[in-house]
Amino acid sequence: MIKRYLIITAILITTNIFSFSQSVTNSPYTRFGIGEIDRNGFNHSVAMGGLSTGLRTKNQINYLNPAAINAQDTMSFIFDVGISGILKDLSTETSSSEFNDFSFDHLAISFPIKRWWFASIGVSPYSKVGYDIQYSSEFEYNDTVNQYNGFYGTGGITQLFISNSFKLHKNFSIGLNINYLFGSIEQYDQSYLDRLDSYCTVVEDKITLSKVNYDIGLQYFNTFKQKYFYVIGFVYSNKTVFNSEKQNNVFMTENFNLYDVNVITYLNHYESVYDTISSETDDNFKLEMPAKYSIGFTVGQTNKFVLGFDYSYQDWTNIKSLNNDNNFDVDQNINVGLEYTPNIFSLRNYMKKISYRAGFYYNDSYLKLNNEKIINYGITFGLGFPVGNKKTSLNMSYTLGKRGTTDYGLIEENYSSFGINLTLYDFWFIKRKFQ
After folding, report:
1. CB 364 within 8 A of CB 403
2. How far is CA 61 from CA 81, 278, 429, in A?
3. Each residue's pLDDT tens digit, 317-356
């Protein structure tokens, strides 16, 4: 069984690793920085408001704090795979639009090496870029013609992580994530007139990036009054200066916008009908991400309930990102979550074996536009359905959130997202006996 999981994992990583960089978002705010950063973990964490720093469970992979991985049994093997989707409504003071999509979300395995040493390997999205912004104005040389300007972007960063988790004491563990971050971001600025005989000017920026960084995690855990427990966690993620390159191209094309053709589709399939005005590569292009500090705790009753709180801090004020550092500020994040399982050992009532989860998050994000911070907050819900043995589970999460505002000339995003993942739990090196 374990060998089968390893083979499936290798095949899925090989065939799907590059698909993670495809955008599954539509947010004008991803035009700035490295996009929409996805650090909520897998569905068990997502359903609890993104709780992760102090979260410690035996049958789930919490790679966001690698110190938590050694919570699993010394003979166990965990395989986790999931998908996610989003529905979003974007609105200004005068207009609105809708967006929806879903994608393959993550893949990970976790296993023991020694009784005190555990490891995990996986791939998941790190950030997402996706936007399509259009606005018009009167053409100054002809008041009967409108001039249109468009901004289009896609891409993102994928994270391939290798976690090592060490139990240094019966109540203390430390973990290290080695993360390979890689991906590409494509941004297009367009300008054209609403006339068939006019041309369109396209400025294209293609950014490729990669870097190895790390996360260091700590957890202290103990029990009191026999059946209750508490966990205190801390995570440090180092500052990252990406190995990056920007290819800038300027094209003169026919007015493909009037035919409702996407700029990427046009440039990829109609090479013979546009002219390259200029092309240059910037090898000194700078793209950074600041260090991040997270602290959190959970308290609860074993096999019954968990309640937790996380706080993270990341200072973007002096960071160079996409050569645009004037819109960045301090990023602060608060996560609150809980989980309740009525009776995990129930033999007759399956509903009592289900884990019920809920949470809240509030992100005072690093992005500042028109002198206003972009706030992102929401509530989360989720269910954990035991499958077969009580440690294998099907996990579902649902998020209802809001980002931005229609005030100050900004855009408000109201969104709902969902996730489903299957967590398979098995055992190493157990020989089955038959009579």
Report:
1. no
2. 11, 48, 21
3. 888 776 565 778 999 999 999 999 999 888 889 999 999 9
